[in-house]
Write a structure and sequence with these properties.
77% of the residues lie in helices and 1% in strands. By secondary structure, the protein is an all-alpha fold. Strand 1 and strand 2 form a beta hairpin.
């Protein structure tokens, strides 16, 4: 057994926690993140244009100088996850040989998928394939790999491969890596459920000091901005659906009102906890999403869409090496505006999704965890993107009577549904689905941020959770209203950049922890 395992002292865990006004917090993590979150809200309210300009500059700087770094981190993490899953380390059971899962596979997977990227797939499931198809037809730097100018069949194949690339193995590997790290050190080494714990093999007891505080602050800030981005996207698309259905204009007041209603529903879910809140909503989400998916499949070109699933997987694998290339790209517009933005978004979400994955994955083997957190959601995502994406591209190729190609990103789902039977009903169902994903993401994110700022404690009072619920919602609102989608994206990229470096060291620490467990088995 290595030296670092002999140095673990349970008495060090909560040494920095304080009980303030009935709240259990680690001041060195809670105060910086709370103050910075409040500062962003106030700055965006007082000087909205300056705020939008600042975030835009941050985004341009990050994607221009660190595009290769984001992509390289994603590649390394994916290769590590695959290696761990197929190696003897995959036999390790989280929590020890006698540990049993707390949730059924259906409940477990529903919560994994809902927290991971459910709302993003609904938002981009139509818009991204359509955007890539149109740019591929035109060719140029904005198209994936330069596009396939004038060749509709090749443009469709390239568009779907690029879309699947952005939503499949790489992002889920980032989530799974953080989730595995937190689960291993929490369940098998009895360390706190916090990001710093995975650094114990590298830093020793200093993780309970300033170095660990810095790691936690970066993780919390990234989570806040990543979650605010998703909430902003969800609110924007839900409002577009409400406008389509009921003619209510999309304005600052209407969006704020919608988010306020969702905040109240999220509060009720937070109050109910994982079992009475997130689990129930996540399972409901899965059934509603499946029903919508089945409707598009049945009312569209069913056999063509089903055959497209296999064709798109082959296209994804064909273009995977080129799409994963971190340097020397000639498709800078696509690479920066889509892939690098997504990678930063996934990384900024990884502490939130990873910690949530860890909390619900006790008793799973490492191999089962990787299958549930990496392969299964990738396959489901490919099916979702194929049915919605290929149906949309087929609509454009056939004449696009509904104006799908000209619609904005937040409207395109509803324009597609408008070309199919029972558009009013399916559009209402879609708005409901977005709102449920909205609540489950906000709820699970609030619980995770609260845990990270409380030194890994999960028994914090409700008032403490409400603080983070309001902070995330506040940042999402002000960034959406001050700079729109651009500011939300910029915030996620800026927060994800330093966390990308943290992720590399976390991978090394996790490997060392797994090797210890393997030798003990």
């Amino acid at each position: 057994m290595t030296d670092w395992t002999r140095d673990i002292d349970p008495g060090d865990y909560g040494a920095s926690n304080r009980n303030w006004w009935g709240m259990i917090v680690n001041p060195a993590v809670f105060l910086p993140t709370a103050v910075l979150s409040l500062a962003v809200i106030l700055f965006s309210l007082i000087a909205p244009q300056a705020s939008a300009d600042l975030f835009s500059a941050m985004r341009v700087g990050a994607v221009t100088h660190f595009d290769w770094f984001f992509m390289s981190v994603g590649n390394i993490v994916l290769l590590f996850c695959i290696a761990v899953a197929v190696s003897p380390l995959g036999n390790i059971r989280l929590g020890g040989k006698g540990a049993t899962p707390d949730y059924s596979r259906l409940s477990w997977f529903s919560m994994l998928f809902g927290a991971g990227m459910g709302i993003g797939l609904v938002f981009y499931g139509v818009g991204e394939p359509v955007t890539h198809f149109m740019s591929s037809m035109a060719g140029g730097a904005a198209a994936p790999l330069g596009g396939a100018a004038g060749n509709a069949a090749e443009a469709r194949s390239l568009a779907m491969a690029a879309t699947i690339f952005d939503w499949s193995l790489h992002p889920w590997a980032i989530y799974a890596m953080v989730g595995l790290a937190l689960a291993v050190f929490a369940y098998d080494f009895n360390l706190p459920l916090s990001m710093r714990s995975a650094f114990y093999p590298l830093l020793g007891k200093s993780v309970w000091g300033r170095s660990g505080d810095v790691i936690e602050v970066l993780a919390v800030l990234a989570t806040v901005f990543g979650l605010a981005t998703s909430l902003g996207l969800g609110a924007q698309q839900a409002m577009a659906g409400i406008t389509y259905l009921y003619g209510i204009p999309s304005s600052a007041l209407s969006i704020v009102g919608l988010i306020a209603i969702m905040a109240f529903v999220t509060f009720l879910s937070v109050r109910g906890g994982i079992d009475r809140g997130i689990r129930i909503l996540s399972e409901l989400n899965m059934w509603v999403a499946f029903a919508l998916l089945l409707f598009i499949l049945v009312t569209g070109a069913t056999m063509t869409l089903l055959s497209d699933v296999g064709a798109n997987i082959l296209a994804y694998l064909k273009y995977l090496p080129a799409l994963s290339n971190p340097v020397g790209r000639e498709d800078a517009g696509f690479y920066h505006d889509w892939t690098v933005y997504y990678w930063a978004w996934w990384i900024s979400w990884s502490p939130f999704v990873g910690m949530f994955m860890a909390r619900i994955s006790l008793g799973r083997t490492v191999r089962e965890f990787m299958a549930g957190a990496l392969l299964a959601p990738t396959l489901l995502g490919i099916v979702w993107l194929t049915i919605f994406g290929d149906a949309s591209i087929a609509t454009i190729i056939s004449g696009d009577a509904g104006g799908l190609a000209k619609a904005t990103l937040d409207q395109q789902l509803f324009v597609l549904l408008g070309t199919l039977p029972w558009a009013q009903i399916t559009s209402f169902v879609s708005v409901a689905l977005i709102m449920i994903f909205f609540v489950t993401g906000w709820d699970s994110g609030t619980l995770v941020i609260d845990t990270m700022t409380a030194g890994g404690r999960t028994d914090t009072p409700l008032r403490q959770k409400v603080i983070w619920l309001l902070a995330v919602g506040g940042i999402g609102v002000v960034l959406l209203l001050s700079g729109g989608l651009g500011s939300l994206q910029a915030g996620a990229i800026a927060a994800g950049l330093p966390l990308a470096a943290v992720l590399l060291f976390l991978t090394l620490g996790t490997f060392k922890g797994l090797m210890v467990l393997h030798r003990k088995a």
